[in-house]
Each structure stands twice: as structure tokens, then as C-alpha cells.
Task: inverse folding
């Protein structure tokens, strides 16, 4: 990430692998302390290698910029860096929408853009020395520009795997194709609000207060260290070529696998062992297990994600699936609390049931499907875990408030030139006092002429606020008060998101988006609001807040990478603006492509659909719950939701409060409640299975050869994830062009003739 990514509040660690997330929740709710896929493994290997090549092996202060990088006395905002960044970002953007609609997971473009950027631009520098645009020297800061463009261009996908499809599932808008310019404008408003808002926060969160607040920004630090390692190593170009080759092979394999598998999906993609056993033995018991979607999907993307996030997250996913769809669901059906429907009338498949319907028949309090019943405990636990994680960071927020007040006081005192300034500058607010010492001071490595000037962002921010009010009123009939409230929530949650991301690598978009929906729902609950209008404003306002907060956190993380590499903030800002501009048009276009090829994405209860879209279900469910005056839940689901939310919050407190000091090693084995909750929203178990396969492969690989895993592991995983996403885009395009995979291909070995 998605995150949101997804995707976010991981209970597992404070380090992220490739910014992986649920609903881009930012950037990493699927973090793990496991060595499999841990960035630290990659970085430690780089450090060891650097040492062997003559680089001093010393402990680096994470709050100071690197001072061992070569100077680049030329323009680093080059066309070649922008082009490579846009290409990488575009691939990640397409992949994120595919993966997000599949399961709610998304991934950031940081490491992907860094590796591809280095490999391609280093080759251009070597083989096109005398060619304008392509040739010329190449250094770490230009590499950073390519990565920055990639990160910005690969963003903004989270809203298209969550709030936007929910709008169409509730029939609150026409079609994505008809509404293309409306959703593009909405995306642009949220994106540039986040960009302009994040710009002045660089000095506070990245430079001046980072050490005091312990805002390491782990993923950003990992990205900067990766770039530094490749450029400092004697064989850096050779190492990057190896990584690029591994990434390319993984990308090509996943793309071809995704496209070819459509012609024989039961052979090359989905393996249904319980269906095979039923066909061989005739036992209905195997068919009953198949009814709960227990099968294996050989998805390179989720195998790759398992390689990145490690065993804790993967096993938590499988454990959540087992709890929801292997224990609770069957008990509900057996006791007559929840109900299913036959998949087919074919006598041969009598007993093969579907328990995932969300039609009106199966969403009533007295006749729910297991999916509808389990949806609410999953959402309740996710929200509880999100806010508990935030509450556990109370020291960071309190200290942040003190530092912010100190900065404001110093600024005000300077303006007034009063006696108060002398007291402030020599008393408890001084950065050089005895308690904090000179180590608290961090100088900005960027000179004044490289800083982003106030006139570059402040007029833009004011203009965005005004334009947003006008556009939302004209296009969506959203009152100005509601618009300002949504923007205020984006402003407020941006602060929380940046601080949480910097301290833990967890972007709490679950908490931000759901809190926004609840607050906006409270303002539209009175008379004078129709149900459809209240739901539309709830989802659009929540989407606006989510986009702004996510964009602010992502771009502040980018500034952190540039700070460490001593990249010009002004040039980074231009790179972010360019990447954001492309993402504003690219993300809606890819969403239109998928929704046109697979209309089931926009249906609230399709009979069958290749996309589970759990984030969409969560957004839609909350919107309905906070706006419908007669909304009721199944009584048993309501009480279990309360219990599960309390249990999830308690598990977070156990991790933060008990597993400390000598017991901190227990965090490695502590269940990830956010991921367990996610499994309740997905009526399929194969995602967790595929991730566990990937995590197991990574664990075995790392155990046998740590150095080769550190060199190739993340590259192969990133190639798998991006490749399957692009393969999904190819399949969507072929579907729109009239290619009927059902007629051309075969459903051999699929249950009831359908996978």
C-alpha cells in the first residue's frame, strides 16, 4: 500500500514490508515480526554487503540524513525518472485495484519503484551516455524522484475498492462509465487536498519533531536504506540487475499464469480437493466442506504477499477463516440461526450449498445468511482494534500536542518580540535544555532555496477548499456544512494518520473512515433528509476524508525518504504533483474497466463474482447502519459483535501492555486481530491459504539461504503481486472485447461445473 495499502492496524509489528495494507489502511495492517519478508532482513543483508565492500559498518541514526552519498550537481527531476516512476506507479495502481477488489489488500510502490528505477536508470546512464534525456549521470536522489513519482502514481486506489463500489451497490449513482468525470473530480479534490495539506507538515513531522516523537516511518526508512545500499555498494548495479531480473521473471510468470488459467481455472488456478474426494467417494460430507469454500487458489499475488508479511499475518488470516467459516458458520447453520441456499438444482450436487448470499431474503434479522451474520462481528472488531491501537499511542499524540504548542509559542513570540519569547527560548520550551540536550536538534539538510515555498501550497489549499464546496454542492447536492465537516475530518485524521504511520508504520484508515461515516451519519439523521441522500452523502463524505488522510500519510512518508537521502523537497513536491495528477485519472479509469468487465462488482448480492470486495461490504454496511432509521441486526450477531469487539481490543492491550521487556518476544506469536477480523468479511478461505503457502516458502528460503532471500525475496514477491494485477487487467480487457472464457475454456474439476 493498500492501505489499505488495504488495507493497517496490524497487531504484529512496527515494521512493514512493501507498505502492504488492507483497503490501503493504509499502509500496513499486514505487518509481521517474522523474518520472512521483513525489510530488516533485506536491509541487514545490504549493510553486511556494504561492509564487505568497504563501507563502514556503523549504527546509523534514523533521525539524521545520510552523509555518505555522492553529490548530484545537476537537475534530478528528469524525464527519464518521471517516465519510469509513472510506469511503476501505473502497474501498482492497476494491481492494487485488482487485489483490493479481490480481498481488500493493496500494496505501496516504494520498493517496487526503487528497484525498477535503479535497474532501468542505471542502465540508461551506462548505455546511453551521449543521448539526451536517456543518458547522463545517475545517483540516489534521482532514484528517489523515480520512487516518489511511483508512490504518488500508484496511490488513490483505496477508495475504488471500498466507498466507490458501495455507492453503486446502493444505487446512489448511475454507472461508473457515465459518472467517470464526477468520480475523477472527487478523486482529484481529495488527492490534492492531501498533497497541499501534507506539504507544510514536512518540517514538523519529518525534521523538527521526528526524534522527540520517535517517528521513524519504518517503510520510508527501509526504502531510503535500500536506495542508499544499491548506490553505495561496489556491485550495486549488478545487485540491482539481479533484483530486476527476479522481479521481471515473477511479473511475467504471474501475468501469464493469470491469463492462461482463465481457460482451465479448475486445473491451473483453483484446486478443490473436497470436490475431487466427493467425485471419487460420493460422500456428502466432502460436499458439505466444499460448501464453505475450503479450497486452494494458486494466486501468485497472495503467495507473494505471504512472502512479504510473514507467518504471523498469514496464520492469523487462516485462523480467522477457520474460526468464521469452519466453526462459527457451521454452528449457526446447524442451530438454525443462519441459513444457506442450494447452489444448483442438479441432483448430482444435492447438498452443495452457498452461505454467502446478501440478497434481501438473507439479510433480515430472522433469516440471515452466515455471511451477513458474520459481517457485523468482523466490522465491530476492526473498528475496536483500530481505535484501541490509536489509544495505545496516546503518548505520541500527547507529546505531539506539546511539541506543536511549543512550536506555535516560539513562532508567536518571535512575531511579538516580547519578553515571553525570551522566557520560552531559555526555559522549558527550549530545544537545548538540559533534559533534551543538543541531540534533540535536527537541522534540515535542504537549503532555503530548495524548500517548498508557502506560495506554492497555501493558495492551492485555499482554492481546493473553495472548489470542493462548490463541486460537491453542484455535482452531489452536498450542503456546504457537510463538505466542510468532511474536510475537517480529513484534516483531523491526517494528523492521526501521519503520526501513527511514523511511529508504527500503521495508517489507521479503518478507524478514520468508519469514524467519518458515523459522524457524518449523525448529521443526516434528522428530518429533511431522504434515505438515499443520507447514504450518498455518508459515503462520499467518508471517501473524501479517507482520500485526504491516506494521501497526506503517503506523501509525508515520501518526504521522509527524501530527507534521509538529502533530496530537494521542492523537486520531490513537483514529483508528487505529477504522480498524483496521473493517479487522479488512472485509478478511475481502471475502476471503470473492471466494473464494465465484471458488473457483479456493483451488485450488492451477486450470485457469483470473482471479486469478494470485503471493504465494499464494510463501507456499505456502515452506511446503511448509520442512516436507516429501522435498521436492526440479528440479536445473536449483535451480542457476539460486542463480545468480539471487546475481545479484539483486549488482545491489542495485551500486546502493548503485557508483551514488553523480557516478554516482548511473545509479540511474534500474538494473533493479529485486524487480520482475523478481515477473515470474517471474506466468504472465502483461499486467500489466507495462499498467503500461508507464500509465508512458508519464504520461511524455508530464508532458513536455507538468508542472503539470497534478502536479495531476491522482496523482488520476486513484488513481481508476483504486480504481475497478477496486470493479468487481471488483461482479462478484464479481453472480457470487454467479447472473449467468453466460459465458452472457450473448461470447468473441469470445478464443483457443479463452476469455479
Result:
Amino acid at each position: 500500500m493498500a492501505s489499505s495499502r488495504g488495507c493497517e492496524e496490524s497487531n504484529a509489528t512496527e515494521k512493514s514490508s512493501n507498505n502492504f495494507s488492507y483497503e490501503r489502511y493504509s499502509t500496513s495492517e499486514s505487518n509481521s515480526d517474522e523474518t520472512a519478508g521483513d525489510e530488516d532482513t533485506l536491509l541487514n543483508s545490504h549493510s553486511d554487503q556494504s561492509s564487505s565492500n568497504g563501507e563502514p559498518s556503523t549504527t546509523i541514526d534514523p533521525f539524521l540524513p545520510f552523509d555518505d552519498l555522492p553529490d548530484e550537481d545537476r537537475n534530478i527531476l528528469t524525464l527519464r525518472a518521471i517516465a519510469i516512476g509513472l510506469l511503476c506507479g501505473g502497474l501498482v495502481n492497476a494491481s492494487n485495484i485488482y487485489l483490493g477488489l479481490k480481498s481488500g489488500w493493496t500494496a505501496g510502490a516504494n520498493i517496487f519503484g526503487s528497484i525498477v528505477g535503479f535497474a532501468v536508470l542505471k542502465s540508461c546512464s551506462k548505455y546511453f551516455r551521449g543521448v539526451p534525456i536517456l543518458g547522463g549521470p545517475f545517483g540516489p536522489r534521482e532514484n528517489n524522484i523515480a520512487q516518489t513519482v511511483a508512490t504518488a502514481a500508484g496511490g488513490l486506489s483505496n477508495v475504488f475498492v471500498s466507498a466507490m463500489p458501495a455507492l453503486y451497490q446502493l444505487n446512489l449513482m448511475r454507472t461508473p462509465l457515465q459518472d467517470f468525470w464526477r468520480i475523477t473530480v472527487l478523486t482529484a479534490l481529495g488527492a490534492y487536498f492531501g498533497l497541499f495539506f501534507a506539504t507544510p507538515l514536512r518540517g514538523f513531522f519529518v525534521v523538527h519533531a521526528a526524534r522527540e516523537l520517535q517517528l521513524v516511518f519504518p517503510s520510508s526508512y527501509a526504502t531510503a536504506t535500500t536506495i542508499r545500499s544499491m548506490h553505495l555498494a561496489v556491485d550495486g548495479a549488478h545487485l540491482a540487475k539481479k533484483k530486476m531480473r527476479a522481479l521481471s521473471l515473477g511479473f511475467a510468470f504471474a501475468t501469464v499464469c493469470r491469463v492462461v488459467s482463465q481457460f482451465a481455472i479448475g486445473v491451473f488456478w483453483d484446486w478443490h480437493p473436497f470436490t475431487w474426494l466427493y467425485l471419487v467417494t460420493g460422500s456428502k460430507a466432502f460436499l458439505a466442506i466444499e460448501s464453505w469454500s475450503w479450497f486452494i487458489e494458486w494466486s501468485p499475488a497472495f503467495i507473494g504477499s505471504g512472502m512479504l508479511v510473514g507467518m504471523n499475518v498469514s496464520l492469523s488470516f487462516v485462523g480467522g477463516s477457520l474460526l468464521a467459516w469452519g466453526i462459527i458458520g457451521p454452528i449457526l447453520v446447524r442451530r438454525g440461526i443462519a441459513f444457506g441456499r442450494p447452489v444448483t438444482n442438479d441432483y448430482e450436487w444435492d447438498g452443495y450449498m452457498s452461505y454467502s448470499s446478501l440478497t434481501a431474503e438473507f439479510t433480515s434479522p430472522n433469516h440471515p445468511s452466515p455471511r451477513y451474520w458474520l459481517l457485523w462481528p468482523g466490522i465491530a472488531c476492526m473498528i475496536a482494534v483500530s481505535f484501541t491501537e490509536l489509544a495505545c499511542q496516546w503518548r505520541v499524540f500527547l507529546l505531539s500536542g506539546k511539541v506543536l504548542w511549543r512550536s506555535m509559542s516560539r513562532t508567536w513570540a518571535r512575531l511579538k518580540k516580547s519578553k515571553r519569547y525570551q522566557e520560552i527560548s531559555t526555559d522549558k520550551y527550549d530545544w537545548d535544555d538540559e533534559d533534551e540536550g543538543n541531540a534533540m536538534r535536527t537541522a534540515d539538510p535542504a537549503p532555503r532555496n530548495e524548500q517548498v515555498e508557502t506560495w506554492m501550497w497555501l493558495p492551492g489549499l485555499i482554492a481546493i477548499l473553495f472548489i470542493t464546496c462548490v463541486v460537491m454542492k453542484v455535482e452531489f447536492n452536498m450542503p456546504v456544512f457537510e463538505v466542510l465537516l468532511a474536510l475537517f475530518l480529513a484534516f483531523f485524521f491526517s494528523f492521526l494518520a501521519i503520526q501513527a504511520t511514523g511511529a508504527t508504520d500503521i495508517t489507521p484508515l479503518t478507524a478514520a473512515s468508519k469514524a467519518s461515516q458515523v459522524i457524518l451519519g449523525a448529521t443526516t439523521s434528522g428530518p429533511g433528509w431522504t434515505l438515499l441522500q443520507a447514504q450518498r452523502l455518508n459515503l462520499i463524505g467518508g471517501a473524501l476524508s479517507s482520500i485526504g488522510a491516506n494521501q497526506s500519510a503517503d506523501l509525508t512518508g515520501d518526504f521522509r525518504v527524501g530527507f534521509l537521502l538529502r533530496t530537494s523537497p521542492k523537486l520531490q513536491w513537483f514529483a508528487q504533483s505529477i504522480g498524483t495528477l496521473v493517479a487522479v485519472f488512472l485509478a478511475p479509469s481502471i475502476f471503470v474497466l473492471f466494473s464494465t468487465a465484471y458488473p457483479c462488482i456493483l451488485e450488492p448480492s451477486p450470485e457469483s463474482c470473482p471479486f469478494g470486495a470485503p471493504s465494499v461490504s464494510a463501507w456499505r454496511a456502515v452506511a446503511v447502519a448509520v442512516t436507516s432509521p429501522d435498521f436492526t441486526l440479528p440479536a445473536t450477531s449483535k451480542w457476539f459483535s460486542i463480545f468480539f469487539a471487546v475481545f479484539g481490543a483486549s488482545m491489542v492491550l495485551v500486546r502493548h501492555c503485557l508483551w514488553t521487556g523480557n516478554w516482548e518476544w511473545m509479540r511474534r506469536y500474538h494473533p493479529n486481530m485486524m487480520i482475523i477480523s478481515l477473515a470474517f468479511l471474506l466468504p472465502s478461505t483461499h486467500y489466507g491459504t495462499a498467503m500461508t503457502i507464500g509465508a512458508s516458502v519464504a520461511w524455508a528460503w530464508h532458513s536455507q539461504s538468508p542472503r539470497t532471500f534478502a536479495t531476491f525475496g522482496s523482488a520476486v514477491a513484488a513481481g508476483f503481486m504486480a504481475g497478477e494485477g496486470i493479468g487481471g487487467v488483461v482479462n478484464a480487457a479481453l472480457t470487454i472485447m467479447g472473449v467468453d472464457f466460459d465458452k472457450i475454456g473448461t470447468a473441469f474439476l470445478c464443483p457443479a461445473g463452476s469455479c
User: Anything to note?
Assistant: The chain has a mean pLDDT of 81.
